Amino acid sequence: MFKGIIAVMLTFVIIGSSAAANEEAYNVNPGMWETTYKTEVSGVPPEMAAMMQEQPKVERECVEKKIIDFSPGDMTKECSFNSTRHSANKMSWDIQCKGEGGNSTGHGEVNFNGNTATGWFEMNMQGPMGPMKIRNVFKGKRTGPC
Question: Distance between CA 134 and CA 123 in Å, rounded?
């Protein structure tokens, strides 16, 4: 379940998190974007947390327009999403997942500022080893044209 949750987090950060497939205009300037992610794990023994934590990861993606479709794709089979768009500058969401490995809930937020974006995503998971929390913090910047 851990790898699946990480995939969900990275997918949300880059392409969105809304349950609705509505296209909305956000304060995001089109071009090549570079996003850095940092993951922290708590609620497990320190040795396990050290194995699960990853070095900061950098992703690059071409954003072609300000209109972004924030749809969850195939993740709706195990997870349900509730998204709230506050403004062109901010979006937040809640997620609930149910699976064989346990249940989890999460919340995240993205702040759009034209050529930069910042945000976080946190999952609280209940599995066979007990409760665990995964927090992903990210920041992105437009680096130029695609």
Answer: 5
Specify which residues 64 forms β-bridges with. none
Three-state DSSP at 15 gives helix
The first and second tokens of residue 98, run together, are 């149910």
Assigned token pair, 113: 């500022």
What number of other Cβ atoms are within 10 A of residue 37's Cβ? 21
Q: What's the pTM value of the predicted model, to 2 decimals?
A: 0.70
User: Any bridge partners for residue 140, and if so which?
Assistant: 35, 117
**CA of residue 102 relative to chain centroid, distance:** 20
Residues 95-122 pLDDT 10s = 888 877 778 888 989 899 999 999 998 9
**Residue bearing the bigger pLDDT, 17 or 103:** 103
Q: Is 117 exposed, middle or buried (0-12, 13-18, 19+ CB in 10 A)?
A: buried
